[in-house]
Amino acid sequence: MKVEGEGLPTLVRLRNIPRLSPRQKDKDMEKERCDVSKSCDSCEKERACSSKEKEEHEEARLAQKLSHIRNKIMVMSGKGGVGKSTVAVNLAASLALQDYAVGILDADIHGPDIPRMCGVENRPLLSHGVGVNPVRVFKGLQIVSMGLLSQDPDKAIVWRGPLKHKAIKHFLGDVNWGDLDFLVIDLPPGTGDEPLSIAHLIKNVDGSIIVTTPQDVALLDSRKAVSFSRLINVPVLGIIENMSGMACPRCGEKIDLFKVGGGAKAARELGVAYLGHIPIDPKMVIRCDAGKPFVTDPEPSVVKTTFIRLSQEVIKAMDRRAGEIASVVHSDLEK
After folding, report:
1. CA nearest 283: which of 306, 302, 310?
2. Cα–Cα distance for residue pair 205/142, rounded to 1 Å
3. Which of 59, 141, 297, 308 holds its CA 20 to 30 A away from the CA of 332?
4. Torsion of CA 185, 189, 192, 193, to 10 degrees
5. For 135-152, what is the mean pLDDT?
6. Domains of the chain, with CATH numbers?
7. Comparing C-alpha atoms, which of 230, 248, 147, 237 is closest to residue 188?
8. How far apart are CA 316 and CA 35, in angstroms?
9. Pairing mode, if any, of strands 236-247 and 254-255?
10. C-alpha to C-alpha distance for 9 and 12, rounded to whole angstroms
11. Helix (H, G, I), strand (E, B), or coil: what is residue 127?
12. Minimal CA–CA distance to 274: which of 237, 314, 243, 303?
């Protein structure tokens, strides 16, 4: 039968549109309802998704978790033994004592010391359906670390880059951090896999703090940490000179064990802020080994005051950065 009329072209075009089968419709509807709070491993429909769809889901899940964290700060050092983890713990604790919600991500996969320094090494991470809950240290401070997953603290973790990247991704995307004002990320020494993974996964790290000691060898490596931070587009908040002199316990005279002033000089030459120096205090070792952040000591001290001032400098730096971002956004909207 011959069909004529103005509606013919429209009918022909409609006839050429592919129709979805009922099964395909149901599958698409299920994907639209995919719960971003669940990981693919815990989803009963996981087998129906392709590898690309799973990857996209995990990216969305990670972005959703990170959207609840206002400030992400890396604590770095060019070499080991400069007290980087000590600075990370006491900076985080100082912020928490000022009523901020703070998390510590221990990204030192091979040498996770944060649980011991916070006194929670015997409290494992627990899964609760839609993720893993971080371990609470005290009000306002919680941590996640490989040290909370290993059943044998003496067993070495022998992993290459891809496994470490996957672990850090789980720490960011599968942990129920909740709403945080600050996430302090304690990185291993150097400029290797872990800081690269953090920069890749978070994408907009708000800043890095470089920890050094006054001697020339440490300063040489701290310069590399500054260069690395700039290379991955992470703003350098400043340099801290740790172990900078000490007071004689007998007479109170200042003793420069490792020289002093190198951190301030490096900061000037590199054009970054100098956040101050932290003297040696024998009580620091005692409290760290006992699992008590130094700043929680009720007795006043120079070191405690320095950490509180450091935390306040970080707060100011984050406020300035937030203002700069808001200014850029406002400028773009006016164009």
Report:
1. 302
2. 19
3. 59
4. -40
5. 94
6. 63-334 (3.40.50.300)
7. 147
8. 37
9. antiparallel
10. 5
11. strand
12. 237
Pair 74, 205: CB distance under 8 Å: yes
What is the predicted pLDDT for the residue at 177? 95
Total residues belonging to the chain = 335
Question: What pLDDT score was predicted for residue 46?
Answer: 65
Higher-pLDDT residue of 30, 191? 191
Q: How confident is the model at residue 13 (pLDDT cuts 50, 70, 90)?
A: very low
- Helix (H) or strand (E) run with residue 4 in it: none
> Where does residue 233 rank: exposed (0-12), middle (13-18), buried (19+ CB within 10 A)?
exposed
pLDDT at 327 over 70: no
Tokens of 332: 């773009």
Count Cβ atoms below 10 Å from residue 131 Cβ, excluding itself. Answer: 19
Residue 2 has pLDDT above 50, yes or no: no
Cα(218)–Cα(263) distance, rounded to whole angstroms?
9
Q: Are 267 and 239 within 8 A, CB to CB?
A: yes
Return the structure tokens found at 12. Answer: 């022909």
Q: What is the overall mean pLDDT for the chain?
A: 84
Task: Give the 3-state secondary structure of residue 126.
Answer: strand
Pairing of β 236-247 and β 274-280: parallel
Measuring CA to CA, which residue among 258, 316, 309 is closest to residue 90? 309
Q: Which two tokens stand for residue 311?
A: 């935390």
pTM for this predicted structure: 0.84
The number of helix segments (H) and strand segments (E) in the chain equals 11, 11
Q: Render 299-324 in DSSP notation, one character per residue.
A: S--HHHHHHHHHHHHHHHHHHHHHHH
Q: Please state, as a whole number, how many other Cβ atoms lie within 10 Å of the Cβ of residue 43.
A: 15
CA–CA separation, 216 and 220 (whole Å): 6
Region 134-146: mean pLDDT is 97
